[in-house]
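Action item from last meeting closed. Structure (93 res):
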């Protein structure tokens, strides 16, 4: 079985972005030793950018949302996880 990742970027603030440092890391399939992806190596600046985006999302969207809106968002996330469960399991293992 071969697993190919579709994206090799970080998801920050609703966008797929490269590392601010520009460095990448090889992801190796331990079963056969082959490289299956090159992913960005996050930096402290990337962490700061991700934290700022999370705080903004909470302050601008999540904080003022109703319990119903939050519930619907979490149920949508659960549905997406179930829909892609096999693919997620293959990537994790």
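Sequence:
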């Amino acid at each position: 079985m071969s697993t190919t990742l579709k994206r090799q970027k970080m998801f920050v603030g609703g966008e797929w972005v490269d590392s601010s440092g520009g460095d990448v890391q090889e992801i190796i399939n331990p079963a056969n030793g082959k490289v299956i992806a090159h992913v960005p190596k996050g930096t402290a600046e990337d962490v700061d950018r991700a934290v700022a985006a999370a705080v903004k999302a909470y302050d601008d969207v999540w904080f003022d949302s109703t319990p119903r809106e939050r519930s619907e968002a979490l149920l949508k996330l659960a549905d997406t996880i179930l829909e892609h469960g096999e693919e997620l399991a293959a990537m994790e293992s």
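Note appended to the action item: The chain has two domains: 1-62, 66-93.
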